[in-house]
Amino acid sequence: MRSAFLWIFALLFIASASVGQTTRLEQVQNKTILVFTPHPDDDVFGAGGTIALLNRNHNKVYIAIYTNDDKGSYDPDMNSQKLARIRREEEEVSEGLLGTTKDNIMWMGYDDGMLEYAPQPKLTEEATAIIRRIRPDILLSVDPGEWYERWHKSDHRMAAFNTIDAVRAAEFWLYFPNQKLQQGLQPYRVPEMYFFYPSPQEANYFVNIDSVADLKLEAAAKQVSQFEPAVTKYRPDWEAADLDKAKKEMRDEQPKKDGHYVEAFRYATGFVQY
Ligand SMILES: [Zn+2]
């Protein structure tokens, strides 16, 4: 009898110790990953090293991009159609370097800066359909808690909140029931979530990107129009000196922890959704 109790206690202990312990993102293999990003560069700047590692380790990585990023230029000769085209091409090259194929990039097509004015039920419904279709083991998105999102940058704020609203909706089929009834999309519960761009005091998960840090810089630098001097006067490629300077700045700004390049996340799971 006593030994039976000991066994039960031992099993309970093992079970409780393993709760919440998941494979490190650096080691995850053969999983499906879905990344939601407000603009076609936040995925690369915020989580590009992690995405490179996930692709390298034979995961299927999908990127869902809310906006076309068609406003952020000071160039008087730029127009929104052209800028959206440029940003799309840059993102495809940039993500391509990280190992994500064009076919796995989904463009939701909202205009830059306008996400908060999109019809919200439609926005949530679209993100919900993506989650139900891709059925990710792991979801990455911009952090809804970061001060910058709360107070300043509207697309980031909206994308952050909309994505977690869609995560909730995706698991209850009565949200947007036509997705099941007409499109055959089954409800889906996202098991793991990691939020990039966390506030420093809330970051609780750091991915070591040492082995892909140079690749991340290379990929980020493909987003030529996001950097000066191309923001002020667009040009499709870098002068060598400008490229060196931009890469050096990015390298200096890349967070480090214990001497390693890292990407910071807020890991969150186990929300009570009802
Ligand atoms: Zn952005």
Overview features:
single chain, 274 residues, alpha/beta, Rossmann fold, 8-stranded mixed sheet, 9 helices, 8 strands, 16% strand, globular, disordered N terminus, binds zinc ion
List the helices and strands and how they pair.
Elements: H1 2-18, E1 32-37, H2 42-56, E2 60-67, H3 80-98, E3 105-110, H4 120-134, E4 138-142, H5 147-151, H6 154-171, H7 178-181, E5 192-196, E6 205-208, H8 213-221, H9 240-253, E7 256-257, E8 260-268
Parallel strand pairs: 1-2, 1-4, 2-3, 4-5
Antiparallel strand pairs: 5-8, 6-8, 7-8
Helix pairs in contact: 2-3, 2-8, 3-8, 4-6, 8-9
The protein binds zinc ion.
Residues 38-39, 42, 156 line the site of zinc ion.
Could you explain how this protein is built, in words?
This protein has 274 residues and is α/β, with parallel strands linked by helices. It has one domain (27-268): Rossmann fold, CATH 3.40.50. Helix content is 42%, strand content 16%. It is built from 9 helices and 8 strands. The chain has helices at 2-18, 42-56, 80-98, 120-134, 147-151, 154-171, 178-181, 213-221, 240-253, and strands at residues 32-37, 60-67, 105-110, 138-142, 192-196, 205-208, 256-257, 260-268. Strands 1, 2, 3, 4, 5, 6, 7 and 8 form an 8-stranded mixed beta sheet that branches. The chain is globular. The relative contact order is 0.16. Bound molecules: zinc ion. Zinc ion binds at residues 38-39, 42, 156.
